[in-house]
Amino acid sequence: MSPIAAILCLLHLCPAATSTSEPALVPVGAMWRYRLNQIGTPPPPPEWIQPDFDDSEWAEGRAGFGTNLGDEVTVLAGTNMVSACFRTRFNLDDPSTLRWLLLRIDFHSGYVAWINGREVARRGPLTDPPAWDETVPFRPRPATEEVDLSPFRDVLRAGTNILAVQIHGYLRPAPALAFNAELRAHFSRGPYIQQVGRHSAHILWRTIVPTTARVEYGIRPDPDQTLETTQLTRQHHVILSNLPPATEIYYRIRIRNEDGEAVSPTASFRTAPETGPVRFAVLGDSGSGTLPQLQVASCLATAQVDLVLHTGDLLYPALTHALADLRLMSVYETLMRRVPWYPTPGNHDLYGPDLLQPYFDTFALPTNSATGTSHFYSFDFGHVHFVSLFIPTLAPFRNQQPYQIGPDSPQLQWLADDLARTDRPWRIVFFHSPIVHSGGHRYDDYNYNGIQDRLELQAWLLPILTRHGVQAVFSGHDHSYERLAPIRGLHAFVSGGGGYMLYGLTERDPLSQVFQARFHHLECEVNAETLLVRARDRFGIVFDTVTIPRVSPPTLFWLPGPSAPLRLAWNSAPGENYQIQAAPTPTGPWQSLQTIRADDYETAWPVPLNSPEQAGFYRLLWMR
C-alpha cells in the first residue's frame, strides 16, 4: 500500500474489506424448527435461543407460519396456544466483511428476535427477558416491518449462526398467531433487471442504508465497464446503454458509504435480438406466500426464458409497499436477476391505499404515447410485439378513469394505432380480465351496467385484435388454466393459477377446449411460423401443449350483409398471395376458385351465393 493510501485508511476514508455474499441469508420459505407454547404445559427451556441448543426434537416446517389463517405455508395446529418459538440456521464464511443487515418480518401480534442468543429486535413484549406467556397489544395482519440489524454485526460468527424468534399472542389463549421473515445482507431488494432491449437494460435495487453505487458490467464474467452513481439513496435505478444485441451481459453492484463497501454476486442477462425466436413464461394471480406459490416459483425458476409476462394480481390481498417483498420480489428473486418481468395490473394491484403507486415503484416499465404512463404499454423482443393493456376489471377504480378501457377510450385508440405501426410478424397481447372464459368470474359485471364484462370486452377488443393479426392473448383473473378455440386466428388463454386459491368450472364456454383448476405457469416458444405453448404445473408436469401457427387456417363465419352473409376468413400476412380452393368432399378433388393478395392481417372472401354444388368444402393454399 502506498503511503498516501495508508494515510487515507487511517483517516477512515478507505473502506474495509469488500463483502460479497448472497443477499438472502435466511430466504423467504426457509425451513425452521418450531415449538408451540400452550397453557398448562412446561415453558420452553431458557437456552432455546442459544446456537448450541438441540432442537432436533422440535417440529420442522417451511415459513410462513399461521394458525390456519389462509396465507401460510405451514399451519400451526394446536389449541390453547399463547406463543410459539422458531429457530433457523444460516452460514457465513467471514462475518467481519458483512456491513449491513436487515430483518424483514410479518407477525401477529408481537415478537422478540435473537441472533446467536443476543436480542436484536422486539415489538410488544415488555418484560426482560420476555416471558414466554406474556400477552401483547393487538396488531392486525399483515404487520410487516423492516428492522436494521447492522448494529448487531458483532454477534455474527464464522460458520453456523442461529436466528430465533418468539411470537406472542394478544389473548391467552391466542386466537391467532402468524410469523414470516427473511434476513438479508446489504441489499433489501434485488438487484433485478427490467426492460431488457436490444441495446439497453434497467437495473434496480434497494439498500438497507443510503449508499452510492458503481455498476460493473460487460460481456465477460469479470466485467470491465462501470457506471457510477454519486447520490446517497436507498432506492437505486440505473440504465445500461450501448449494449450489443443478443449478447450475455454480466453485472454486479458495488455499494458504499462511509461505513464500508459491499458487492452483489455477479449475475447476467441476455439482451434482445434484432429479430428471431423468443422464449417467454406466463403466470398470474400469484398468491399470498402460500406453499403453491413457492412451488410454482421454484418450478418457474428453472425455465429457460427471455422474459416473463404476469397477467395481474401480483400478490394478495393487495399490492402494498409492506407486502411487496415477502410475497413477491423475494419469492422470485433469483429469476428476476436474469430475466425481466413485464406485469399488467390486476384488480388486487389497486386495492391498497396507494392504488398503483407500489406497482410503479416496484417495476420500471415502458410508457405509452396516449397518457405518458405505464398503465398500458408495448415493447418488441425478437419476432414478437408484446402489448400490455390496463384491464384490471371494468370497475371504476378511483383516479383511474383516464386509463380505463371503453369504446371511445384513449387506450383503445392507442391499441389500434400501436398494432398498426408494428412490423413484427408476431403480436401477443396480455391483460388481466379475460375476454372468453369458463371460471369463477364468467358472470362478472364490475361496472354494473347489466352487461357481462367478458361480452363488453369482446365487443371492444376482438375487432381490433383480429384486424391487426394478433395471434394470442393471455389473461388471468380466473384462478385456473384454460385454452380456448381460436376466434378468426386469435388464440386465447387464461393463466391465473400462479399460487393463490383455485376456481372451479362455472359454465363451460362453447370455445373452451381445455379447463383445469391447477396451479401452473406457461412456457412459450416463438419461432418464425409457430408459437408453442406448454402448461406446466407446480410439480413440473406438462399437462397441456398446443402449437399455434402464425397464420391460421381459414374458417367460415357469418357476417351481416345483403349479398354475401357467408364469408371465408383467415389470419393473413400482408403482401402474400392465397389461393382459394373448393371440393365436394374433404379429400377432393380440389378446384382453384380465386387467388387473392392480402393487404391486411385479416382477409375475408365472400362465398358466392351461386357457388357450384361441388364447392361444399374449402381450403386455402398459401402461395409462398
UniProtKB/TrEMBL annotation:
InterPro entries cross-referenced by the UniProt entry: Calcineurin-like_PHP, FN3_dom, Galactose-bd-like_sf, Ig-like_fold, Metallo-depent_PP-like, PAPs-like, Purple_acid_Pase-like_N
Keywords per UniProt: Signal
SUPFAM superfamilies, A to Z: Galactose-binding domain-like (SSF49785), Metallo-dependent phosphatases (SSF56300), Purple acid phosphatase, N-terminal domain (SSF49363)
Keyword ATP-binding: no
CDD domains per record: FN3
Location of the Fibronectin type-III domain: 187-274
A matching Pfam family: Metallophos
Domain of life: Bacteria
One annotated GO molecular function: metal ion binding
Name of protein: Fibronectin type-III domain-containing protein
Species for this entry: Limisphaera ngatamarikiensis
Lineage of the organism: Bacteria, Pseudomonadati, Verrucomicrobiota, Verrucomicrobiia, Limisphaerales
